Amino acid sequence: MRKGNGILMAKVEPGMEAMVDVYIFETTALLEQLDEILLRTEKANEFTEEDINEIFRIMHTVKGSSAMMGFENLQVLAHKGEDMFFIIRENPEKMTDVGFVYDLVFQMSDLFKAEIDMIQNDDNYEPTDFSDMLAKLEKGAKMLKGELDGIDIEEAAAAPEAEAQAAAPVAAAPDCTTVRVFFEDGCKMENIRAFMLINNVRESVDDVEIVSYVPDDIESNQDSANVIIDNGFLLSFRAPDPKAVFSAIENSLNVESYEVIDANARKEAEEAAAAAAAPAPAASAPAQQETVSAAEPAASTPAPAAPKPAEKPKNTEQKAPAAPSGGGKQSLISVNLQKLDQLHDIVGEIITTESMVISNPELEGLRLESFTKSARELRKLTADLQDTVMSIRMVPLTGPFQKMNRIVRDMKVKLNKDVELVIEGDTTEVDKSIVDNLNDPLMHLVRNCMDHGIEDNVEERIARGKPAKGTIKLSAMSSSGEVIITISDDGAGIDTDKVLAKAERSGLLMKPASEYTEREIQNMILLPGFSTNDVVTEYSGRGVGMDVVKSNLSKMGGSLTVESKKGEGTAFIIKIPLTLAIVDGMEIMVGDAEFTVPISVIKESFIVKREQILNDTKRGEMIMIRGVCYPMLRLNEKFGLYSEVNDIEDGIVLLIESENRGICLFADKLIGEQQVVVKPFPKYLSQYDIKGEGLSGCTIMGDGSISLIIDVNNLIGSH
Length: 719
Description:
With about 725 residues, the chain is an alpha+beta fold. The chain folds into five domains: about 1-160, HPT domain (Four Helix Bundle (Hemerythrin (Met), subunit A)); about 175-290, Alpha-Beta Plaits (2-Layer Sandwich), CATH 3.30.70.1110; about 335-395, Orthogonal Bundle (Helix Hairpins), CATH 1.10.287; about 395-575, Histidine kinase-like ATPase, C-terminal domain (Heat Shock Protein 90, 2-Layer Sandwich); about 580-719, CATH 2.40.50.180. About 40% of the residues lie in helices and about 20% in strands. Strands 16-20-21-19-18-17 form a six-stranded mixed sheet. The chain has a five-stranded mixed sheet with strand order 8-10-11-13-12. Strand 14 and strand 15 form a beta hairpin. Helix 8 packs antiparallel against helix 10. The longest helix has 25 residues, at about 20-45. The radius of gyration is 33 Å and the shape is flat. Mean pLDDT is about 75; it is low at about 1-10, about 150-170, about 280-330 and about 535-540.
């Protein structure tokens, strides 16, 4: 179906469904690379020849892969962007004072990303009509050519339909070489096969000039596949060594045979193709940049006679079977994340089963030296296997960090603030599942720094001895099994008086205002419904965002704290585990129940004397440790468990800390350290707020029993 200037296509081509994931992965990576190049060149105010060629290559690749998948609206969108950079590549001097190019390409990139997200997540996906954006890109190309001057690109109306029609086929010059290619029967989408063949020839042969090809609308007209089936695909070219082109054709996918034809046969084939294509609508995206004028003189070699166009050659002089393209060694492959998840789960089960075998109670008291030796070797191998699988899932934070450049760039323009984003430690690696969930929290926090943190008034910054340009810093580092991400700004800081007053008006205070510490007041901005903005803007003022950030991080087992100094700036500190599935834990017993406490939050364990216990009228039992008073939580009372260990001197106390808050846990005894596989609670328990009560999951121990995993953040928060 067609609508306006944008070609729409509702479904993925039959047989191509399995390639959608690969298309999404590769196209998303290319679009992120495009954004990175644009941000870097805009900041440097310079486009190098390498940058222009790289952008053109990205556009061309995205166009080709979109056409191959049948996403014609995306293919045409990329083609229009490619047209702009074709003009720039041919005339680099056009890139002086053309800021509109950045705006257009960023808009195009955003539309592409949104459409890919729909393809990925919408079961009833319907293509978007990009007519308005296509018109803007066409006007941008005209402005680069000098045909339009001083016209606001946003005023663009749809270009006349006549301009969107494909140009007539360019007749091949008599001094070029023409081959007719036939594809394997039943390979389907012969037009896309032809497009891929052209790209393969261009990439494989130096100094080749593609003069013309018939049909010439293979990218945008699916009916051209029928023409190719009946008449073959004609490709006219000039090359210093035509044999190199023949070799590239032989190595292209799905090629059954090809032949070199003379001028008369070429003319007959062009007429037959034109007649067959007459009922089909003209392509909306002209292929003007894909063909070159045939008027340029060049040396050529005589071509032998050929059979009639409609006849498929059986035994031609130059006949090549289809051959796989590419022969180099491949060191990287793309793997579906679901397969990695499945592998990770299997490794977790192996670790659990290994523990069950080695800790089997039937082996107690037996002296089995050979078994013990084998068990040690098995444990070493499973540990290596686990480390390898974990390393496969570990990816750097470069992706989500670099995306923040775009957020800062757009907000700089809309808020009229001069801000620089500094990135450090983006090579720090975390589990892929964590990286996927970090984009939204980082975006909210960077926006908060831009909107709330950096001052609106430049004179105010200068008066405080700060540079006129604000700085937002995004850094990451690994520390004892967790990753610490800091998002900071050198802005005005948090006005605690204003925050406290707003919290009091909103009824968010849980105790008298005078009893709140400065740190507690600063962290009030993380409360649901809290906002210091009196006016709702595009970026803030609705009281949503920060509490969602904290909630999302909590789901990952992470935490968020705020540190600020008025007049100097604010820092948001995120702490998240390196991985969500396997943790190092300390096993403790409470009555007949076994619990796992993540080692990363345990500061120390000790036995206390009765005289060390203080009683607070509001907070209950407290323990003084090196001058700091911590509340004590008896786990048997918290979870309603019967325990014979009630005297403080008979049990064990663990000091745990999270989000700069500490608490002491009282348990019967320590069992020991063990690496455990985290498993979620059954779905039927989701009706209860188990996580809110301080439990994040469970794990199966070596003897088959179940150990409950303590959620430290929620346990401290609920006490």
